[in-house]
Amino acid sequence: FYVAEVPDSCCHLEALRSELAGFCLCSSLAIGTTTGYRLFSLSSVEQLDQVHESNEIPDVYIVERLFSSSLVVVVSHAKPQQMNVYHFKKGTEICNYSYSSKILSIRLNRQRLVVCLEESIYIHNIKDMKLLKTIMDTPPNTTGLCALSINHANSYLAYPGSATSGEIALYDGNTLKTACTIPAHDGPLAALTFNSTGSKLASASEKGTVIRVFSIPGGQKLYEFRRGMKRYVNISSLVFSMDSQFLCASSNTETVHIFKLEHLTDSRPEEPPTWSGYMGKMFQAATNYLPAQVSGMMNQDRAFATVRLNISGQRNICALSTIQKLPRLLVTTSDGHLCIYNLDPQDGGECVLIKKHSLLGSGKTEENKENDLRPPLPQSYAATVARQSTVPSTSTMPGYSEDGGALRGEVIPEHEFATGPVCLDDENEFPPVSIRDP
């Protein structure tokens, strides 16, 4: 199966048959099933609210919702070359497009809608669905790997620039021009994701041992994290937190890694003259005389926090979110469950499972029977978690809405679009269109 992430409230999840494939969310979740698709609101840890369910199109494997609006893009196995755009609250089709081959992924923000095929990429204007640009003869991209910045001020698009190496092609979706190429890894790419502002891009190769973060649009390497050295893994998702302070990586192993994006400065206090401090300085100085590959490995940062899952060998998808004003790690498992963990933003360490929801059933939750067995958290953080409000409250994070548009998703505010408002209650905004062949 294919999975991709977009931060903020914009969601994507693909499922083959009745198995959950993945998600990316901050306040809402979309899943595709054999019977159609479902949209959920994530405003509370204890409850998973179903916003909408559609059974009109079977075998849905791509679902993309435009933030908290009523616009949703769907692709099914029945017609894998056709993209359907719906106003789900009205139950009406806005338009549909057909392409020359199977649609592998779709990305959208407030300005652009991107359709990725194996050897071409189509860029549409989200206002009227007009085709603006076709990037032809891209390197073979069998998984449809690509990432689109949710920041409409730049609308940067990243996709593999080579099928044999880890080169990233960066494209400006607003000016419709190539921005740069980034030699990110030696081997082919496996994962790409932008932060919420489009100023950083994270990547991983098919080896899955090293994750790198680059500045955008310059392409300079900012961070390098080592997920592991003992074995190669398949990175199934990369996602930034909304404030870009954390980066989460999920793979086909039993461990989910969370890295903290911070730089050590020269202004840190002087260490006391101890033997360990002396050896540490000698070790750091020695890296200047070692080969680049060796010194680079020594300077790579390890995970800030982790989660140990009870399954391995299957793809698990992660997201970092703020629910009820507290940081959470969300992980979907291949058996169709959403697991919610507490994340300690100060001390990191092992994340604690607090809730497990079923996604393929009727939205019922499953109590975490391990709660009474888990060790207590540090008092400062545990006390904060214990004071959770039973009533969902609005996050203090700028531009964040916890209800995911479940109650007021009919109209998209004017400031959320690059040029002028788009009111999905307006019958004339996206008039129904017959099938088009771009």
Give the terminus-to-terminus CA distance.
26 Å
Number of helices: 3
Structural class: mainly beta
Content of β-strand: 35-45%
Q: Strands of the biggest beta sheet: in what spatial order?
A: 1-7-8-9-10
Q: What value does the Rg take, in angstroms?
A: 22 Å
Task: Report the uncertain regions.
Answer: 1-25, 264-272, 292-299, 363-435
Record field, number of beta strands: 34
Mean pLDDT: 75
Question: Level of helix content?
Answer: under 10%
Biggest pleated-sheet summary: 5 strands, antiparallel
Overall geometric form: globular
Structure description:
By secondary structure, the chain is mostly beta strands. It has three helices and 34 strands. The protein has helices spanning 275-286, 292-299, 379-386, and strands at 11-12, 15-16, 19-20, 28-32, 37-41, 49-54, 60-65, 71-76, 82-87, 92-98, 105-108, 112-116, 120-125, 131-136, 147-148, 156-160, 166-172, 177-185, 189-194, 200-205, 210-215, 221-226, 235-240, 246-251, 255-260, 305-308, 317-323, 326-333, 337-342, 349-350, 352-358, 365-366, 411-412, 422-423. The strands form nine sheets. Strands 1-7-8-9-10 form a five-stranded antiparallel β-sheet, with no helix packed on it. Strand 19 (189-194) and strand 20 form a beta hairpin. The protein is globular, with a radius of gyration of 22 Å. Residues 1-25, 264-272, 292-299 and 363-435 have low confidence and may be disordered.
